[in-house]
Amino acid sequence: MAVETTIPTTASTSLGPAANEKDADKLRFIDEVIANADAVQEKVLAEILSQKRPSTSRSTSLAVPPTVPPLRLRSPCSGTSAGEWKLMPTIKEELDLRQLLYSLLIPVMNLYVPGLNKGKALHFYFVKSETRTPGGLLARPVLTSYYKSEHFKSRPYDPYNAITSPTHAILCADSFQSMYVQMLCGLLHRLEVLRVGAIFASCLLHAIRFLQLHWEELARDIAAGSLSPKITDASRGAPNDVHRVRLLRVLLRLNLRPMCKPSEVSYTIMSNMAYFEFLPLELAATCKGDGDVHLVDLARVEGGKEYELVITTYLGLYRYRVGDILRVTGFHNAAPQFRFVRRKNMLLSVESDKTDQAELQKAVESASRLLEPYNATVVEYTSHAFTKTIPGHYVIYWELLVKGSPQGMMPGGEVMERCCLAMEEELNTVYRQSRVADGSIGPLEIRLVRGGTFEELMDNAISRGASINQYKVPR
């Protein structure tokens, strides 16, 4: 894989002038953690090791290779990009670390966007129902733990975090009812809403899609002063918001440059959150958990190189291979900045070809431009390497939306054939060699699915334990 040779760096040693003294304290904390990343990491490791073993020496404690704990119990904890649910250990102190990280977001945003303390925010938050492990331990996502904690429910008023969503709607485990009520309250306060957001971008995209599908019902509720009979739980305990309808006529990372282009987003890992190590990508494929693997410390990664993230946490994970592949894009003071590349082993492959998610996304974007004359867009997509025939071939599933006519005619077969060719032209040289010269890969195929298919896919995943906050369509 090609590696960037020009590494952008941040010339300034501080983040900038704070909007107020409260922000100044937070920004000074960020600067200190970043400027002393290696020292902070050594302190974190010593604290983690002191919980279980007498030795706190970095050199002696890390003399064993990374391991992969068998944490693959199916649970309602967070879903991953690979579509696997994992049961992670957690402790009470984790909420304190999370709250600290969340408190750093607004001070950074205030450097770039003035007026965040004005008006209200339509922020979408969700919880999941709780389950018990075979041993009787409570199992629930970390965000659910936070929203159900007094940290969140008894939070003091903060003009920067004045949200339209009532707490009871957030704490409703039924994702449809929770989304419906939060969207309804946002529409009711629409003249005060100045910003919209969610913890994860995928959740915000889901909210936009939800509005496309249910805007007529929401509008009827507002006009009629009624509430949909589908809402049986999420409106309880929210008299100042949802019941007003009847009275009317109704992680782990920090982006220090939040206004940059999405394609340029890099994250700075806060070195006080856990102990971070990095496995060079060229060694990741052969590392099986034994032998000398030459892990690299946070402060010693090299610009332009790609690594697999390995973490040791306060929660009991020891040298856990997360599965994220990161590229070092630059440095802020002594702290490296990373760009997420892909999930490990998440590749589309028929033969010797290897197509990652970023390359597939680029190909879909290129092909979808051919749909513009038909007022059609690709709402969602996923892919599959079909190998039941010889030669095998890529199958790409598209859900389209025709603007102005949701039930209208979709682009014809000739247009879709051109889209297939456009996608193939964007794929790598190994694919094109196998496709054209060798004939070992068959023609790429695009299959159109009916509207709402990916919504149903998400609902099915949520019913099996996925979190709506973190669910992402498997590409």
UniProtKB/TrEMBL annotation:
Ligase in keyword set: yes
Protein name: Indole-3-acetic acid-amido synthetase GH3.4
A single GO cellular-component term on record: cytoplasm
Record keywords: Ligase
UniProt similarity note: Belongs to the IAA-amido conjugating enzyme family.
GH3 C-terminal domain segment(s): 359-475
Domain of life per record: Eukaryota
All residue ranges annotated as the GH3 middle domain in the record: 267-343
PANTHER family for this protein: GH3 DOMAIN-CONTAINING PROTEIN, INDOLE-3-ACETIC ACID-AMIDO SYNTHETASE GH3.1-RELATED
Signal peptide: none
Keyword Cell membrane annotated: no
One of the record's GO molecular function terms: acid-amino acid ligase activity
